Amino acid sequence: MDTNDMVGDDRVERLIAQHEIERQIYQMGYYLEDGNFEAVAELLANATFGADIIGRAVFRGREEIRQQYERTNVTYDDRGRATKEIYSNILVDIDLEAGRANSVTSYTVAQQPPGDSFELIVAGRYEDEWQRVDTAWRWADRYIRVQYRNNLDRHMHADQHPWTGDGRDTSPPATTPSSP
Questions:
Q1: What are the extents of the domains in the chain?
Q2: Mean of the per-residue pLDDT values for the chain?
């Protein structure tokens, strides 16, 4: 086989891998919107899961991850989480030879619970690690980095998440010592 053909085949394989990974990222968003934590856990069945406030790889596998989502997320009858997951700036780095990949996804979550106004509630990054299992790409780790947030009380159970208030720093401004 000609070297140029191998490069071409490698490019096609890389594009297929990127498409498969991106499709799973978007599918995750739809499952989260619907509050379908069983399907979320299935996508993360062999992965670890964590977040900036609780640490990396705190939960492992389908059951622990499903239980964490059910424990922390508020759902509404016939509305799932009453959210819209908005993903952008997806970057995927793939090492075909090692069967590993990393991706980063910017996310913004908007919510409109029943009887409430529509608002953006949280934004940040998903930092994911992937591994090829047989011929399919599967999550190896999902890490959530929260960068901006409003009040999460209608999105997450207040006693089950570490974020309080609306995300704005309400501490008094630092004072500078006055000169004598």
A1: 3-160
A2: 87
Q: How far is CA 37 from CA 21, 48, 100, 132, in A?
A: 19, 15, 25, 23
CATH number given to 3-160: 3.10.450.50
> pLDDT tens digit string along 147-160?
999 988 888 877 66
Residue 140 CA: distances (Å) to CA of 24, 71, 102: 13, 22, 10
Identity at 176, one-letter amino acid code: T
Q: In DSSP terms, which residues pair with 131 in a beta bridge?
A: 100, 138
DSSP 150: -
Q: Which of 56, 179, 75 is nearest to 128 (CA)?
A: 56
Q: What is the pLDDT of residue 158?
A: 75
| Strand partners of residue 129 | 102, 141
Provide CB contacts within 8 A for 73, sequence distance 6+: 35, 37, 81, 155, 156, 157
Residue 45 pLDDT exceeds 90: yes
